Amino acid sequence: MIMRIKSKFIKISTVMIVLIMLNACKDFLEDSILDNTTLSNYLIKDTEAVTFFYGSFHFMRSFAFGQNYLSAYELLNDQTYFHATDESRRQMSRLEYYANSTFVQNVWEALYKVIGQMNILIDHLETGAMKDSRYSPRLIAQARFLRAYCYFDVVRMWGPAPITRAYYNTSGDIKPARSSVEDVYQLIVDDLRYGLEENRLRDFGITPAGVKIMPDTVVFKYPDDSDESASNYFLPISKGAAQLLLAKVYLTRNEPGDYADAESLVDAMIAGSRTAGGQLYDLLPEYGNLFEVNTKDIAHRFREVLFELEAHPDVGNNTTHRQIGVNRVGATAGIKVPNTSPNNGIIGVNASGYGYYRATEYFLSTFDGMKDKRYFWLFQFAREENGPFYQKGRDIVTTHNDNGYCNAVLLRFAEAYLIKAEIRARANDPAGMKAAIDPILTRAGLEPYNPAGKTQTEMIDDVLAERAKEFTLEAGNRMFDMRRTGFQAAADKFEAWYDVHVRNSDRKNLPDLSDKVTYMYMNPRAQGNPGIVMMDDPDHQGNQIPNTRQDQRVGGDYFEIPVPFVTSYPGEKKFYENGAYRKQVEWHPIPTRELMQNPNLRTDMNVKDWN
Length: 611
Prior knowledge:
Layout: E1 2-3, H1 12-25, H2 39-42, H3 46-64, H4 66-74, E2 80-82, H5 87-93, H6 102-127, H7 136-158, H8 181-196, E3 205-206, E4 212-213, E5 216-220, E6 231-235, H9 239-253, H10 258-271, E7 305-309, H11 320-324, E8 357-359, H12 361-365, H13 373-378, E9 379-383, E10 387-390, E11 408-412, H14 414-426, H15 430-443, H16 456-470, H17 477-485, H18 487-503, E12 518-522, E13 534-536, E14 544-546, E15 558-562, E16 576-577, E17 580-581, H19 592-597
Parallel strand pairs: 1-7
Antiparallel strand pairs: 2-8, 3-4, 5-6, 7-11, 9-10, 12-15, 13-14, 16-17
């Protein structure tokens, strides 16, 4: 789903802000200027409800793009470092940030703004002038999906959280206490089930030429208008998006019966895939085409990307591009000189990225650097002392420093396979797990899964590792996976790798980095060699030896770079402090500003004086 907000539609978020401000000031005005412009007499037509709905996507951009998203969703895991001098984000990267974090505050506010807008819209559709409209149940389903999506992020970030109502003024309970996790999840489930009942949310259509038809449409015309002059207002949320989100909710909540319900939902989606003889869903053959700005409209991409936000052209609304873009200062030819690696150039035309958010060396070590197509696309190395830059979210076409037009992908059909694989692994079903995970591995250029000799725990770990690679830098999936499956267990694996390869390593091979611990990585931009593939001899500097593997898609072009990659700006992950595991890393703090405004938000429900 691509949410395109066209110029003819009212920018309802701005209207709402103005109305609320006017309402607050009404008692101080000599004349009541709201007699003809109130919220109650605005939301009286289907088209107004649709444009109101569209307006909420403006707020969603605040937690799907840029610094807020990258910091609050992607730094708090074992995948990503922050590599710059901004101490507030360095603290988040080290997992020792505070309740006054601007990024956490901004995400909280944006999520609850969308929730608040949807509460108002649902209330009007259920009880207002449009309650008898034939479109109302379908519009309510669209609104309840967005509300469910936002509450799902809220409950996974903060746990117990306020369940709010439609607020029109400051009367009544405007400072709600935190509701239980169980109650928040029940609201999410109820919202999504509503849309999946009675055909309220619908499947997208497909033309004979393979072009997507939006799932639903509100048609508006004046009584005397011809059908040709009617205006179509698309309802973008599909049945498949709701099915996948609900399956994900069940997998995360994990109450009795939830795994079975999640599996039933993804089974139905997989049965509707082209691989199974259906027509709706499919994996796009090339992983990178899901995210590149110049492939957003590629044929059949919509069969995998089920929910996404369209990048906005205004300066500052999509800073993901600038924040992660390759910093090519002194590195126009990549990490190695061209005569050593002739195809080692940097992809794209923009030379002014900050490169602030970068992959950890631990995360890179989990890839098969010789085969995995995701590795080739996700990373590029521009400066030897800096480690890898991410590609996902970076616009390789634009020459503008700040603006990038890569969409924020939030739900993909690939997750249906991986949910199925995880549930089968947890059921200790090797054959079922293999059948579900193999399509993901095949697209990545990897061998089919071999479960021989695998324990149940190892199979589960293998699925989680694939999720980490498949959903890199995508909707906070890694942080949420670490939280739902055991943050400390994931932290222990990170720490164990770090002990061997960084803290206790004696690899100091590069002449100009003799005081730095170094580690060998495959160059994702190198090309295949026609003869025997050689590699650097790890034990004898300057020597080349035949690589024991001759099957890589790129040419065995290894290089050594220092670890940690953030040596210039200390950013080592602090899962432990003085030998003790820090439970704070499992939750975001309740923002200080929210605590000041609402004393009912207790801060000791998960971690004392924190969350």
